[in-house]
Amino acid sequence: MQGEKIMNIFEHQIPMEKVKFNEPLKNHTFIKIGGNADILIHPTTIDEITKIVEIANIHQLPLTVIGKGSNVIIKDGGIRGVTISLSHFDQIKVNEDSMIAQSGVDIIDVSRLALEHNLTGLEFACGIPGSTGGALYMNAGAYGGQIADVVERATVITKDGKVLEIPREEMKFGYRNSLFKMDHYIILEAEFGLKKGNKDDIASKMKELTFLRESKQPLEYPSCGSVFKRPEGHFAGKLIQDCNLQGTRIGGAEISMKHAGFIVNVDHATAQDYMDLIQFIQKKVYDTFHVELETEVIFLGE
């Protein structure tokens, strides 16, 4: 189904200022690559999200959901059907010792607001790029902390449009994995259980972690974050470094000289540049160390 026809389906259902036709997705990802979405919708309410899912099911439209686009590579052919961007679904509510964040809010902003309210537990997230929903989806973690440690519950929409509340014990968290990823749930919001702490101590920890991140990661270039999962018994970046691959470049994509686990967009890279470089790295590391590198980054589109 062509984009114009899809747009007509949504015309009287979703405010048209929230709908974009043939939208370049490179404008909606950290890595600044990716083809166009037939239709990109920025809902701001649960009712709008539910309605989009319902309409997509009725008309059998492919449905893709993105957050901040931080750990994703959208292929050069773009995404057919309907793409929901939750980046405008971004409200946070603070209770005495917990926070409820909608899935589109930056997890960094949740961490910073926790600091403002003297709440400890989310310090590890102060430098994690991406949305709250994406952090749950991937069980994001850094510097000894992970989302599984602090989330209490989540509200989701299933593929068939049902709204469910999922308690932590049912989330099936693993290393960069979760129930949400396995069952393709759309995350609406998450509640984090935190503790009252000393504001100076919380700020000091966040400052320390921010320094570590800025000193070790190539933040001066667009990237999709850490490309590979940590293989058992190894570190992906160390394996790549030991293969003398830092600085290797295909098209506009380059293995960072600062951190070998990152591939940076140094000159208008395409998704194909990234995929070719990822395959090159995987082959080189396997040939050298007999270790298979599995990608952490998510590929979308065609």
Radius of gyration: 20 Å
Q: State the end-to-end distance.
A: 15 Å
Summarize the helix and strand pattern as letters.
HEEHEEEEEHEHEEEEHEEHEHEEEHE
Amount of helix: 25-40%
Number of helices: 8
The chain-level mean pLDDT equals: 94
| Sheet with most strands: strand arrangement | 6-7-13-11-12
Which spans have pLDDT < 50 for at least 5 consecutive residues?
none
Structural shape = globular
Compact overview of the structure:
With 302 residues, the protein is an alpha+beta fold.
Structural description of this entry:
With 302 residues, the chain is of the alpha+beta class. It has helices at 3-10, 46-58, 107-116, 132-138, 179-183, 199-216, 236-242, 271-289, and strands at 19-24, 36-41, 63-66, 72-74, 79-85, 92-94, 98-102, 119-120, 141-142, 145-146, 151-157, 163-167, 186-193, 195-196, 223-226, 249-250, 253-255, 262-265, 298-300. It has a 5-stranded antiparallel sheet with strand order 6-7-13-11-12, with helices on one face. Strand 16 and strand 17 form a beta hairpin. The longest helix has 19 residues, at 271-289. It is globular. The chain starts with a helix and ends with a strand. The model has no long low-confidence stretch (mean pLDDT 94).
Features:
302 residues; alpha+beta; 4-stranded mixed beta sheet
How does the SSE layout of this entry go?
Elements: H1 3-10, E1 19-24, E2 36-41, H2 46-58, E3 63-66, E4 72-74, E5 79-85, E6 92-94, E7 98-102, H3 107-116, E8 119-120, H4 132-138, E9 141-142, E10 145-146, E11 151-157, E12 163-167, H5 179-183, E13 186-193, E14 195-196, H6 199-216, E15 223-226, H7 236-242, E16 249-250, E17 253-255, E18 262-265, H8 271-289, E19 298-300
Parallel strand pairs: 2-5, 3-5, 4-19
Antiparallel strand pairs: 1-2, 6-7, 7-13, 8-14, 9-10, 11-12, 11-13, 15-18, 16-17, 17-18
